[in-house]
Design brief:
Number of strands of chain C: 15
Helix content of chain C: 10-25%
Number of helices of chain A: 4
Distance between the termini of chain A: 54 Å
Chains: A alpha+beta, B alpha+beta, C alpha/beta
Strand content of chain A: 25-35%
Structural class of chain A: alpha+beta
Order of helices and strands of chain A: HHEEEEEEEEHH
Mean pLDDT of chain A: 90
Low-confidence stretches of chain A: none
CATH superfamily of chain A: Jelly Rolls
CATH topology of the largest domain in chain C: Rossmann fold
Distance between the termini of chain C: 35 Å
Number of domains of chain C: 2
Mean pLDDT of chain C: 89
Radius of gyration of chain A: 17 Å
Shape of chain A: globular
Strand order of the largest sheet of chain A: 1-8-3-6
Largest sheet of chain A: 4 strands, antiparallel
Largest interface: B-C, 56 and 49 residues
Number of helices of chain C: 5
CATH architecture of chain A: Sandwich
Number of domains of chain A: 1
Strand order of the largest sheet of chain C: 10-9-8-7-11-12-15
Strand content of chain C: 25-35%
Number of strands of chain A: 8
Oligomer: heterotrimer
CATH class of chain A: Mainly Beta
CATH class of the largest domain in chain C: Alpha Beta
Shape of chain C: globular
Chain lengths: ~160, ~375, ~300
Amino acid sequence: MRSIEDLVGELPTFAGLSPAQRELIAGCGSNRVFEAGEHLAREGDAADAFFVIRHGRVALELAASAKGALMISTLGEGAVVGWSWLFPPHRWSFDARALEQVRAVAFDGACLRGKCDADHELGYVLMRRFAAVMLERLQATRLQLLDVYGGPDGE
Amino acid sequence: MSDQATIDRAGLDELIAILSRRGHEVVGPTVRDGAIVYDEISGCDALPAGWTDEQDGGSYRLRRRDDEALFGYAVGPQSWKRFLHPPELTLWRARRGADGELEVSEEPPEAPSYAFIGVRSCELHAIAIQDRVLMEGAFPDPFYRARREGAFVVAVNCTVAGGTCFCVSMETGPKADSGYDLALTEVIDESGHYFVCEAGSERGAEVLAELPRGEAGPEALAAAEAGVARAAASQGRTMETEGIKELLYDNLDHPRWDEVSERCLTCGNCTMVCPTCFCTTVEDTSDLAGETAERTRQWDSCFTLDFSYVHGGSVRSTPKSRYRQWMTHKLATWIDQFGTSGCVGCGRCITWCPVAIDITEEVAAIRADAVD
Amino acid sequence: MAAPTASETTPSAGRGPMAPRPFRVLSRRQETEDTWTLALEPADGGPGPGFGPGQFNPGQFNPGQFNMIYAFGVGEVPISISGDPGGEGPLEHTVRAVGPVSAAICRAEPGAQLGVRGPFGSSWPLAGAAGRHVVIVAGGIGLAPLRPALLGALAGRDELAGLVLLCGGRSPSQLLYREELEAWREDSRLDLGVTVDSAEVGWDGDVGVVTTLIGAAPFDPANAVAFIVGPEVMMRFTVDALLDRGMDPADVHISIERNMKCAVTQCGRCQFGPTFACREGAVMSYAAIEPFFRTREV
């Protein structure tokens, strides 16, 4: 049974951090397993936590009345799920649902925010990591919006 | 092959008559609509005797000479490509039967056997360039080949340089060095008005042997050489060709392209008059009943939007990109594709551009402040 | 099993390079709202003269090559061959109706005749992939010209270190070859990733652009070749993602689409820098064309 610290060390998001920094982060983490169909989060809920996926796939969805849930994006191994813990009002913007069995490390948002406030170097390193991932996610989303393939009604 | 002789105007008439009797459709320069164009001729009377041309960027005028020279001018708006690579050609016709069967009948590539009178050295190079493009690939064009093979070529060495000529820079003249059956150099001086005539092939020598001719003595040869040297020394333009391929490849984003595109109308005149431009389009048509169809091939120009159209739009939608395509193809990518420059320095694109864009000036401008 | 190459054919026998050969439509299957797959066979009685002494055998082509397909009286367009290069089966073309010619081709019912000229163009370098990973990334209709490469790779799977197919599409109903995709999902010889830009209710596959699948795809970038076809934007970003993962630009191959009227390097329209897309392409190595690919409107 590996420790949270070991698991943190394996996550690409936290690669290259010092052992001390890993220990700090791990202190806010816990091991979670979600079965297929289970929700990691619901739109509107308080965003107290975020997840980093170790195994499995998660869908980000929006409930849209007549059509059921609309999937916006799917995330896989190594992906960070959830940003709303970083900034007020700390509410989830989407549903996050496990598409298959998902094993993830869950991080307590308040705990990690507190540690970043206390240790600015840790805070800066983490913010840079998260910003890089958000940028990548933004670029991919922009490409999605471009609708490059077109269709019978479009180009 | 240095069968040489001198012939006079009567001899030239006889040459045209012999070629006609041999079954050739004889084509040569003639004055029409204020320009010197290529058309069927039956004798020297049709040639532009006593005419010369004044050419500059966007300007072409005919002027009277003070002699009766038959070839005292440079090149006009047309080139021999309108005979070898015709502006419009039916490729095949098709029928669709009652059961939907498709039957395609190709047009036979038969063509007149031409004799070209007055082919300049730059034009010989242009013909050789089009030979490479249209006959040396994996799928030789049978229509071009039918017109090209058997064409009898009577070249003329220029003794007058045009206002926009730069064959010396492009190493394509003014003296014809190959690709002809006969080559003429016109001499008009105190000793008379005659042509030094040289055979460049066996059948050229055969025809020369049938003409009333005189000996090509040292004075005649010297006079001919002097004429060619005068043309070489009075070129209207120059083009520095050293490293030109790399220059253009490295400067595809040079600001000069923006500048020239503000002037360029994308009218495509340059591609129509250029003797090496070969681009075409294909048109598929059918009758109203949908029973017969045909495909024709027509000259086209890289300056049109259609030229680069793919689903979603044209790859080269801006005039800048189209001018750049034409110039970089002509001077740079042509070298990678076919082993030589696509430009023969005839100057037509400069003369016939309505806004006088000068390809030699554009190259010089990019060179002047290039990215290495 | 090489297609009759340019050097093997002479136009003196058979037909000239611009004359289409009649082919009969055997079957027509709708893939999506605007895309159909046609199966064709020669209408002049079996494998006969192609361009010359060579025999055009519909199965004999190299993956990546295309034909010029003619719809009577309407026109002719280049369409990649999407069938099995090693099979005995008919000539297959998957066509998207985007203009009058392609729409006319898509309307052709079994029994109708179309004109075919070809095959033309370069091919996916599968021969050089022995011992390496083959990574195929298809965007939208791009899966059609890649299907022969995939089938060729599956047939020669023992020679490869690995085989990955990543497909991106606009939405689940716009995916091509859905039955085959299901079969390939279960096929242990390849790793399949399918993603859509926009999901429909009931979709439980991935959602997001196809580049998001590249990071986790199981291949060794130092020992792989990649074949990419899709809209130019998608190809650009896919190339970047593969290079970011450490692939060599010479091992990344894309397919260039250009206007084509002749397909025999004589109409001049398909030029892309110094290359003719009908001869040096449509398949080209990214390393060979990079400076032109990155310059707009070349």
